[in-house]
Amino acid sequence: MVFEYLFEQFDETYSKKISRNDTQRILRAITVKIATGKNLTYWHDKVSKKVFKKIIYLTISVDRGKLYKSIDDRCLKIMKSNAVNEVSNFLKKKKR
Questions:
Q1: Quick one: pLDDT at residue 64?
Q2: How many CB atoms lie within 10 A of CB 18?
Q3: Cys-Cys crosslink for 41: which of 13, 22, 76, 89, Cβ 3.0 to 4.6 Å?
Q4: pLDDT, tens digit, for every residue of 12-33?
Q5: What does the domain layout of the chain look like in residue ranges?
Q6: Of all residues in the chain, what percent carry a pLDDT higher than 70?
Q7: Distance in angstroms (rounded) separating the CA atoms of residues 27 and 63
Q8: Which residues contact residue 10 at a Cβ distance below 8 angstroms, ignoring those fewer than 6 apart?
Q9: CB count, 10 Å around CB of 74?
Q10: pTM of the model
Q11: Could you tell me if 35 and 43 are in contact, meaning their C-beta atoms sit under 8 angstroms apart?
Q12: How many CB atoms lie within 10 A of CB 5?
């Protein structure tokens, strides 16, 4: 197969790691080499720089009663806006 030959020429290390029948990965490796000039082994070995030195997790806490009231209000607004009928009509049309 021509792709296998090209693949072995482009990236001998990676070609030994994957099956010769895995045409999707072979084609991807060839595409990466052509597009970037670097083989997949180069990209796999490249150590990525950390974008963030420190990650901070935030949580927002809302009173449960206020949260449920907000959810109930939103659901009523959806029901009143006829959204349920719109979805129902859409599903009926889709089945045809």
A1: 94
A2: 16
A3: 13
A4: 888 888 888 888 888 888 888 8
A5: 2-45, 64-95
A6: 95
A7: 54
A8: 29, 30, 33, 39
A9: 10
A10: 0.45
A11: no
A12: 10
Residue for token digits 């889709």? 94
Structure tokens at 62: 């809302």
Q: How many CA atoms lie within 13 A of 40 on its CB side?
A: 19
Query: What is the C-alpha separation between 1 and 91, in angstroms, rounded?
Result: 47
Over its C-alpha atoms, the chain yields an Rg (Å, rounded) of 27
- Return the pLDDT at 70: 94
Mean pLDDT for the stretch of residues 1-9 = 71
- Helix (H) or strand (E) segment spanning residue 59: none
Mutual orientation of helices 83-95 and 64-80 as an angle, nearest 10°? Answer: 60
Q: Three-state SS across 18-40?
A: CCCCCHHHHHHHHHHHHHHCCCH
